[in-house]
Amino acid sequence: MSVLVFVENWDGKFKKLTFEIVSYASKLAELLNTSAIALSVGNVENLELEKLGKYGAQKIISATNEKLNVLDNRIYTDVIADFARKEGAEVIVLANNITGKALAPRLSVNLSAGIGSGVGKLPISLDPFVVFKKVYSGNAFAHVRIKSRIKILTLAQNSFEVIETGNNASIEQHKIQVRDEIFNTHVQEVQKQTGKIVLTDADIVISGGRGMKSPDNWPPLVELAGLLGGALACSRPVSDEGWRPHEEHTGQTGKIIAPNLYIAVGISGSTQHIAGVSSSKYIVAINIDKDAPIFANAQYGIIGDAVKILPKLIDAVKEVKGK
Amino acid sequence: MKILVCISNVPDTTTKIKFIDDNKKLDTTGIQWIINPWDELSLTRALDMKDDAASGVQKVTVAHVGLGSSEPTIRKALAMGADDAIRINAEPIDAFFVAAQLSEVIKNAGFDIILCGIESSDYNGSTAGGMLAEFLGYPSVSSVSSIKSENGQIIMTREIDGGKEIISMPVPLVAIIQKGIAKEPRIAAMRGIMTARTKPINVSQPITIESLTEVINYEMPKPRAACKFVDPENPKQLVELLQNEAKVI
Ligand SMILES: Cc1cc2nc3c(=O)[nH]c(=O)nc-3n(C[C@H](O)[C@H](O)[C@H](O)COP(=O)(O)OP(=O)(O)OC[C@H]3O[C@@H](n4cnc5c(N)ncnc54)[C@H](O)[C@@H]3O)c2cc1C
Fold first, then answer.
1. Is residue B224 scored above 90 in pLDDT?
2. Is B206 within the bounds of a domain?
3. At what angle are helices A73-86 and B128-136 packed, to 10 degrees?
4. Chain A, 173-202: which have a CB under 8 Å from a chain B CB?
5. Summary mean pLDDT of chain A
6. Total domain count for chain B?
7. What is the pLDDT of residue A307?
8. Where are the beta strands (DSSP E) in A24-77?
9. Where are the domains of chain A?
10. Cα(B117)–Cα(A249) distance, integer angstroms
11. What is the chain A residue with the closest CA to B117?
12. Does ligand 1 lie within 6 Å of residue A287's CB atom?
C-alpha cells in the first residue's frame, strides 16, 4: 500500500506546486497509515530530487528514458500506471494543471480508478472515500464519493500549504523501457516566453478589463505588476479585442487561477469571469460603478476612475515598499 | 476524413445554481440548457475544417450521452452544421461512465479525429476526453488551441506552462480542446435550423458499466465577507491593508 504522487519537472526543476502536491500526498499517506512515494519522470538531478524528501516523500523514484522528454500522454500513462501497480498505490496524486489534466483521466481508465479532480483539501472521509470539489464553475461544491479501490486525486494549485517534515528519503533510479511503437507526439516547434512569471504560478495577479478603455492605458498595470512581482491577466473581451494576448485571459473559458491576491481593474465581475478567479485568497476591485458585481466577490474595493487611481496606487506601493 | 465532436448538455453559464432534495439534486426549474461552451467551440472548429476543402474533412458527427430531454441541445449542434448525431440513451452518471459509453459507439465507426472540450461547465472534471482516448487506445493531446490537417497528419498547438508546442500526430486521435480554437461559436442560421429537423439522430442503447464516483450531495459556497471600501483619493490605505491585514504583499 502507498500513496503515489506524480511530480513533473520544468527543465529539470521543481516548483512550489510540486511541493504542495508532495505535502498533500504525505499528509494523506499519514492518515491512511502508509507512506508517500514520489514518482519523477524525465531527467532530474539528485540534488533536486532530494528536495521531495523534505516535504514528506519517503521514497523517490526517478524514471528516465529519452522518450520521456516529451509529454506523450500514452507513454506517461503507461509509466505511471506501471509504478502504481508495483508500489501497490491506493491513491495517486497529481497536480490539477495542464499535465495532470492530460494524464489523470487516462490513468483512471488504465487502473479503473475513480477521479476526484481539482480537490482543494484532504478527503472529508476515508471510508467511504469522499472528497470535496468545486462544481458549476465555483457556484457550488460537491461531496463526491470515489467507489473504486484505487483513487486518483488532482490537487488545485495554491490550495494546500507546503509542509516541511524533513524526511530523509531514499532515491531509486530506474532507466526504463517504453513502448516506442505507441509514441505519437511529434513536437515540431516549441515557443516559450522566458523571464515572465507564468500566470497560473503567480502569487499576485493584476488584471484589466474593458473598463481600461484602450490598450494604451495598460502601462500602469504593467508597472504595478512589476512592483509587486505579479503577473498580468485580463477579461475575455480584452483578449478578444486583441488588446492583450490570449494567454492572459482568465475566467471560465480562459485560465483558472488561484493567486493570493487578484487585483481586478475595470472588470465588471460577470459569473464567467469570477469562475476563473473565485479561488483567489484576496480579491481587490477597482471600478467606477459602485454596483458592479465584482464588489460582491472582493474583500477590498475602490470606487472610481481607474485611470486616475492607478498612478496614486503605484506611488503608494513604491512608498510602502520603500522603492 | 471524419470528425466526431462529443457534446455535453449543461446549464447556461449565467444560471443561478440551486439544489433540491436535501441538496442532493440540481433544481432544473427554469434552466436553459446549452451545448457546453468548449464543445461548441470544438464543433465550430470542426465545421470550419469541413468548409475548407483542402482539409479533407467530409463529415462532422456529434455524440452525446443523455436522455431524450437533451435532444434540443443535439438539434442545436445539427443546426450549427453537424451532419448527423449519435445519442446514447442513458443518464450521464460520471465521466467514466460517459467515456465508456462513447467509446463503445466510436470504436468501430472509423472516426479520424475526436474532439472533446477540456471541461464541462457542470462537474468541471476535465476528464471525459482523456478517459475516452484511453478506452479507445488512441493517442491524445490535451489543452489544444489550434488544429488543422495537413497531408494526413494532424497539426495541433498545445499549451504548456509559459508557452506552446506545435505537434503533429497521425490519426486516429483524440484532441482535448481549450480556448483559442475558434473565436466565437458558430451561430445557427435559419436554414440550418430548418434542415436540422430532418438530420438523423441515431439513438443507441447503453452498455452496462459501473460508474466509479457518485455525488453524495452539494453545498453552496459561503458568502464572502462584505467588501471594505477605500477612499479613492487615498489608495495608500489599500496598500497598508494588503500588507498588514491580508498580508499578501
Ligand atoms: C460562454 C461564455 C463564456 C465566457 N467566458 C468568459 C471568461 O472566461 N472570462 C471573462 O472575463 N469573460 C467571459 N465571458 C464574458 C463575460 O460574460 C463578460 O462579458 C466579460 O467578463 C466582461 O468583461 P469586462 O468585465 O472586462 O467588461 P464589462 O462587463 O464591459 O465591464 C467593464 C467594467 O469596467 C468598469 N469601468 C468602466 N470605466 C471605468 C473606469 N474608467 N475606471 C474603472 N472602471 C471602469 C465598468 O463599470 C464595468 O464594470 C464569457 C461569456 C460567455 C457567454
1. no
2. yes
3. 80
4. 182, 184-194, 196, 198, 200-201
5. 96
6. 1
7. 96
8. 36-41, 59-64
9. 2-182, 199-321
10. 17
11. A253
12. yes
Provide the Cα torsion B207, B212, B214, B220; round to 10°.
Answer: -120
Which architecture, in CATH terms, is A199-321? 3-Layer(aba) Sandwich (3.40)
Answer yes or no: is B243 within a domain: no
Rounded Cα distance, A282 and A311, in Å = 22
**Predicted confidence (pLDDT) per residue in B118-159, tens digit:** 999 999 999 999 999 999 999 999 999 999 999 889 999 999
Outline where DSSP puts E strands in B24-139.
25-26, 33-35, 59-65, 84-88, 113-117
Contact A137, B13 (CB under 8 A): yes
Query: Who's near B69: CB < 8 A, 6+ residues apart?
Result: none
CATH number at residue B6: 3.40.50.620
Q: Which of A239, A79, A100, A228 is closest to A156 using CA atoms? A: A100
Smallest CA–CA distance, residue B17 to chain A, in Å, is 7
Asked if the model's pLDDT at residue A103 lies above 90, the reply is: yes
Provide the pairing of β-strand A204-208 with B19-20.
Answer: unpaired
Looking at 3.40.1130.10, 3.90.1150.10, 3.10.20.30, 3.40.50.620, the CATH number of the domain A2-182 comes to 3.40.50.620
Distance from CA of A226 to the nearest CA of B (A): 13
Enter the C-alpha cell of residue A230: 505579479
Look at residue A322 in the predicted model and tell me its pLDDT. 77
Percentage of residues of chain A with pLDDT beyond 90: 95
Among A41, A11, A5, A7, residue whose Cα is nearest residue A175? A41
Average pLDDT over residues B10-32: 95
Ligand 1 centre to CA of B38 (Å) is 19
Helix (H, G, I), strand (E, B) or coil at B131: helix
Domain encompassing residue B36: 2-220
Residue carrying C-alpha cell 436554414? B191
Tell me if B81 is assigned to some domain: yes
Q: Cα–Cα distance between A132 and B4 in angstroms, integer?
A: 33
Residues facing residue A154 across a β-bridge? A94
Q: Give me the pLDDT at residue B138, please.
A: 98
Mean pLDDT lowest among A3-17, A187-201, B104-118: A187-201
Q: What is the pLDDT of residue A69?
A: 92
Q: Which amino acid is at B70?
A: S
DSSP-derived secondary structure letter, B172:
S
